[in-house]
């Protein structure tokens, strides 16, 4: 008899540390890790490759038929592949970030990807998986035993993100981050914790303290 993996669901705004913290937590626990934003980014990448109008929901939806997507769940290295192309780095480019919210607001895209995330999470070859995104605690895995909203003040998130992108002006990085959150928050509420979701504010925590705090929430869960 096989047991389903334990799901740790993590949501939060851009730059809150969802990806880096979730990855570190997964490593510590020997769990898998699923970055759901990568799938929205990969579809946005494909839309740009095909030169389709990313503001046209029908054109975006039609891309789903040819969206041959895969992502690894190993926190120590996961490749994002679209139709045989390794797009792991390409999906992080600003040109992709600037159109991804338009892709993510199309309902057909969301339902297609939610189904995909549930399959990937159920099939993981580890005792558990940390799944991070915007709607994991509410839509993808609302019954997960551990559900966390990871947040931090906007100024702190902007500073952390611009430290990463030292060759870009801090104001530009901050403005892009805030604009993406505004657009995304019209589709999914990832700024307020749903019932039963634990809010973890990392504004005054360093990285390791944040990882410890997430692990403490997991360990305290009955
Ligand atoms: N508590 C923390 N203290 C200091 N730095 C942190 C902390 N948490 C995350 N970081 C750093 O903040 C940056 C943004 O984190 P990360 O990319 O994981 O955010 P994210 O929520 O996944 O963002 P996005 O949604 O835009 O992909 C990274 O450089 C990460 O190392
Ligand atoms: N569960 C999710 C995850 C992501 N999105 C959209 O994808 C964009 C990129 O996500 P990152 O986590 O890599 O920043 C994000 O801005 C959302 O538009 C989503 O809708 N739902």
Automatic annotation (TrEMBL):
Family of this protein: Belongs to the cytidylate kinase family. Type 1 subfamily.
E.C. no: 2.7.4.25
Cellular component terms per the entry's GO annotation: cytoplasm
- Taxonomically, what lineage is the organism? Bacteria, Bacillati, Actinomycetota, Actinomycetes, Micrococcales
GO terms for biological process, alphabetical: pyrimidine nucleotide metabolic process
A GO molecular-function term, please? ATP binding
Lineage, top-rank taxon, reads: Bacteria
Q: Show the catalytic activity.
A: CMP + ATP = CDP + ADP; dCMP + ATP = dCDP + ADP
Which species is this UniProt entry from? Orlajensenia flava
Report if keyword S-adenosyl-L-methionine is assigned: no
Keywords assigned by UniProt, alphabetized: ATP-binding, Cytoplasm, Kinase, Nucleotide-binding, Transferase
Q: Is-annotated flag, keyword Thylakoid?
A: no
Protein's name in the database: Cytidylate kinase
| Annotated Cytidylate kinase domain residues | 8-219
What are the binding positions for ATP in this chain? 12-20
The record ties this protein, via InterPro entries, to: Cytidylate_kin, Cytidylate_kinase_dom, P-loop_NTPase
Principal location listed in the UniProt entry: cytoplasm
Question: Could you tell me where this protein is found in the cell?
Answer: Cytoplasm
